[in-house]
UniProtKB/TrEMBL annotation:
Belongs to the KAE1 / TsaD family. Its EC number is 2.3.1.234. Its cofactor is Fe(2+). CDD domains: ASKHA_NBD_TsaD_bac. Fe cation binds at residues 117, 121, 311. Residues 29-317 form the Gcp-like domain. Substrate binds at residues 140-144, 174, 187, 191, 283. This is tRNA N6-adenosine threonylcarbamoyltransferase. The lineage of its organism: Bacteria, Bacillati, Actinomycetota, Actinomycetes, Pseudonocardiales. Keywords: Acyltransferase, Cytoplasm, Iron, Metal-binding, Transferase, tRNA processing. It catalyses: L-threonylcarbamoyladenylate + adenosine(37) in tRNA = N(6)-L-threonylcarbamoyladenosine(37) in tRNA + AMP + H(+). One of its GO terms (biological process) is tRNA threonylcarbamoyladenosine modification.
Amino acid sequence: MSRVIMGIESSCDETGVGLVRLHDDGAVELLADEVASSVDQHARFGGVVPEVASRAHLEAMVPTAERAFATAGLKLSDVDAIAVTAGPGLAGALLVGVSAAKAYAAALDVPLYGVNHLAGHIAVDTLQHGPLPSPVLALLVSGGHTQLLRVDDIASRITELGSTVDDAAGEAYDKVARVLDLPYPGGPPIDKAAKRGNGSAIAFPRGMTGPRDAKFDFSFSGLKTAVARWVENAERAGNGISVDDVAASFQEAVADVLTAKAIRAAREQGIGTLVISGGVAANSRLSELAAERCAEAGIELRVPRPRLCTDNGAMIAALGAHVVAAGHSAAPLDFSANPGLPVQTVSL
């Protein structure tokens, strides 16, 4: 008999509630994916304010859940299990989601699974493209994380091959957008401006690509600083700057490093499929360059549609379904959120 899994996400500034159906053959079907974002409340600060995010989650949790059940045409009593983001993320924001999930699980008397936000970004691809091959390489790029991961089993075996040593790619986008007087969050406006610019106009550095650097680690702090210094110098010299060219050249540097390291990792690991996920996966140049380089290398590329790339409850429900299908034990109701939960810990 198929089972309905409810997923709750509240790790940062998106309140997400998703519903999926786990079929007897292991297939996972998306039934509803509702999100309430507090990004507009953070825009004037140029970044997420944890206290503001936590309050927004408190206000949005129940209405978002109600919309999800209305969309799916289901009742709370139809839920067979609940999955919630246990980490990583902002402590206060996580606690709102975990508390809500515990309340729902206790009221419905259904098992509760605390799962990893990062693994959820990978699992969400199965809602669009079906089961993941084993192994698969995942390039996770978001505002807070940039990682290369080997996934042998989405429910239990994830190995980190490389990570950022400073700024994540999405964080660099936000900071460069501020330098260019573009809106927050920086990803969409930089991507839009870059389409009008020349990505070869400025030779910005490619961090962590030297022979002595860790093969699969990333660094975007130097790139961010290089953009800021270039703009400062141009303005000091009285030269006008092309925001479009700066945006395009910055974006080209980011996409170049991300895709080059991903292809190298796939080849060295003998992996034939690359999944790109996380908010930055919606970037047009990243997906375009990844498609070109994967085609040249004979590697299959899977990128979820933009709606699934950003934080949402569907990804947590999808991961929860895989954890349930694998027969993992439910978490005790007294488990705590863990803001620093490592990606290797898929579920609690």
